[in-house]
Amino acid sequence: MDQGGSPQSNTSSNQVAAQQIGVAPIPTTAPIPSPQPIIRPTIATPANVPTTPNVAPGPKSPALLENPLSRPPIPHAPSADSAADEHPTLSSATDDLSILTAESGQPAATSQIDARIKTILTQKSHMSEQDLHRAEHFALTHRITLLDYAVSQNLISKDDLGQALAQSFGIGYADLEKYQPTKQQIGRIPPEIGQQCRAFVFREDKQSVIVATDRPSDPALVPQLQSVIPGKTVTLAYAMPDDIEPLLVYYRKPLVTRFTQIISQQQRVAPEIIDEIIKDAIAYKVSDIHIEPEETVVVIRFRIDGLLQEAGQLPKQYYDNILNRLKVQAHMRIDEHGSSQDGAIRYVVDEQPVDIRISIVPTLDGEKVALRLLAEYSRNLSFKNLGLNVLDLKIINDQAHRPFGMIITTGPTGSGKTTTLYALLKILNKPDINVTTIEDPVEYKIFGVNQIQVNARTDLTFSQGLRTIVRQDPDIILVGEIRDTETAKLAVNAALTGHLLLSTFHANDAATAIPRLIDMGVEPFLLASTLNVVIAQRLVRTIHDACRGSYEVSLDELKFKLPAAEHYFKTPKVTLYYGRGCEACNFTGFKGRTAIYELLNITPAIKELILHNPSTEQIWQLARREGARSLFEDGLDKVQTGRTTLEELLRVAEPK
Questions:
Q1: Closest CA to 452 of 463, 466, 438, 440
Q2: Which of 218, 397, 505, 655 has its CA 20 to 30 A from that of 52?
Q3: Residue 169: what pLDDT?
Q4: Are 206 and 59 spatial neighbours (Cβ–Cβ below 8 Å)?
Q5: What is the pLDDT of residue 104?
Q6: What is the spatial distance between Cα 165 and Cα 204, in angstroms, rounded to a whole number?
């Protein structure tokens, strides 16, 4: 990602200032060194878990300890036999898939992974040889691995893959997604060792302990664990890295505790505090970090699943050094305190690059910092797991494979518009296709795509960039946002001259986009000829699977929340879902987000209507007659299937 910031003339002054505050300036071409592993933040703090004595569920059963936070409470202790039935056991496996490296536990070379995956897919009859050849061709032409294709097409489940990996190591498989560790189990391994080894107690009885890890090839792992769990035989089980990663936050100490430790050492306060904040943000899959100066303290807040949560505070006396370090890293002016500045940093955490956009603005109590994290966890969504239903998925897929036209996503800032377009680019990106984008900013780098960053200083605007792109022989063009009349007209002309154009547009719903584009000066006959589909979307938080609960409510009671309830629910009793709240979700009941959609497919009838400069209401009425569903109706499907709550849906969408 291109580094943002001030002109080159500021570099020397930044270096001098960096020496004065004891901070080494970061070269523009070098990534920030990866900080050392640290431990857990204030939010969701089940750290400080006391180490418990050896626990055994019973003389007859080696069953796993019950997790009261992820399963309904049991009124009395079950018998040993019944406990054995209810608690998790290790799964056996029959496949051979040695694709993990001993050093990192991450996938080995792509060719080695794909070779093993081919063996599993054919031996387990997941697909025929003919289908396998087609899959290999698809993976090659779309620049993805065979594993990505197999998982996205549901040819192999995550559970099957985990069992195959476990068998390759000659050990059992531990499903940590279904059976998360309890507080007692987390406390059995010291936090430093647990985080270093990426290990959790999975099952324990009087004689033995089974520890789940995604690094079972490490020869020092068992002796190290044996030293902290004496008197019992330690056996390893394999767990998927995706299941291990979210659990590592349990080994982290509160952020405030670590701030106090860093300050007491009086060494590299600013660098270490910044490292702790960023590593915590990545661990919690934070989208934005807010560092806000108050009168006597500085408040750090994380935006998790769309909502801000306070993560910690630190004394204000250390804030100037922290602020100056961030400015130096982002190539900003450190002697400028009265105006806003923007910049960028590339951080490397656990060998994974994280691009961070930084915005600094002066407030009454000092300069406030907002950091937008563009981490790997934000960019890995595939087109099929965005939350689209089958019908909408088919419409978008069909329209995306047309040779020309416009696909527009609408919604407020932070509604996932760019993520949807990026996921669409993944299925369109092929070696024989020229894909070029103009963005502000370039959020994620996509292999094989020519991405251009808007630069106002060089007059590289959306409109100017789009003019240039058209001369670059593109097949597919992505314009980050249609903001003005000039860009709108250029986008329509580009789509009219044989290009597929994708863009975002600010409108409250899908139907509103058409009158707005016409008001911006786009001729109705041109818009009718080029527009393929308009996608409106919002993001809703999803209920945490581990603490999901349900309840029944009568239609009369439901009318207090939803006055037109009888229009959407046809039974006198309705089952709704909620999250009880647990440590894994910071007692919010939610974990992660999904999108709700409203599609306006531009059919011949709607094309004809556009020619007459229609209102939003006229467009939507016709779309409804042709089967369109509103944002609220799509969200209601997710409410009824337990993906989200009715309250969360009403927070972001309203019935039409």
A1: 438
A2: 218
A3: 84
A4: yes
A5: 33
A6: 22
CB 518 within 8 A of CB 526: no
- Label the pairing between strands 548-554 and 573-579: antiparallel
Q: What is the pLDDT of residue 130?
A: 76
**CA–CA distance, 224 with 192 (Å, rounded to integer):** 12
Strand 435-439 with 476-479, pairing: parallel
Report CA torsion sign: 31, 40, 582, 104.
positive
Confidence at residue 68, expressed as pLDDT on a 0 to 100 scale: 29
Task: Please report the pLDDT score of residue 101 as a whole number.
Answer: 31
Give the separation between CA 25 and CA 330, rounded to whole angstroms: 10
pLDDT of 154: 67
At residue 436, what are phi and psi to the nearest 5 degrees? -130, 140
CA atoms of 214 and 14, how far apart (whole Å): 43
Cβ-contact 501, 491 below 8 angstroms? yes
Long-range contacts of 308-311 (CB under 8 A, 24+ apart): 309/43, 309/586, 310/42, 310/43, 311/41, 311/42, 311/43, 311/255, 311/277, 311/280
Q: Residues in the chain, how many? A: 656
Residue 29: partners with Cβ closer than 8 Å, 6 or more residues away:
none
Q: Is the peptide bond before 27 cis (omega within 30 degrees of 0)?
A: no
State the pLDDT at residue 125: 65
Question: With contact defined as beta carbons under 8 Å apart, do 356 and 371 qualify?
Answer: yes
Which structure tokens are listed for 332? 């900003």
What's the domain range around 514?
A: 383-541+593-643
Q: Assess contact for 474 and 493: CB atoms under 8 A.
A: no
Residue 323's CATH number:
3.30.450.90
Average pLDDT per block of 10 residues along the chain, 656 residues long? 41 40 36 36 36 35 31 32 43 37 37 61 69 75 69 72 81 87 85 88 90 90 90 92 82 79 80 88 89 94 91 90 93 92 85 86 95 71 79 93 95 90 88 91 83 89 92 94 94 94 94 96 96 96 91 92 90 93 84 94 97 96 95 96 95 91
pLDDT at position 379, please? 57
pLDDT of residue 151: 67
Residues 324 and 367 in one domain: yes
Residue with tokens 């016409």: 518
Total domains present in the chain: 3
Question: Same structural domain for residues 118 and 207?
Answer: yes
Helix H or strand E segment including 390:
helix 390-400
| Same domain (yes/no): 239, 175 | yes
Cα–Cα–Cα angle for 306, 308, 314, rounded to 5 degrees: 150
pLDDT at 441: 81
Instruction: Write phi, then psi, for 191 (nearest 5 degrees).
Output: -55, -40
285 and 421 belong to one structural domain: no
Task: Give the Cα separation of 531 and 525 in Å (integer).
Answer: 10
User: By the 8 A CB rule, do 56 and 205 touch?
Assistant: yes
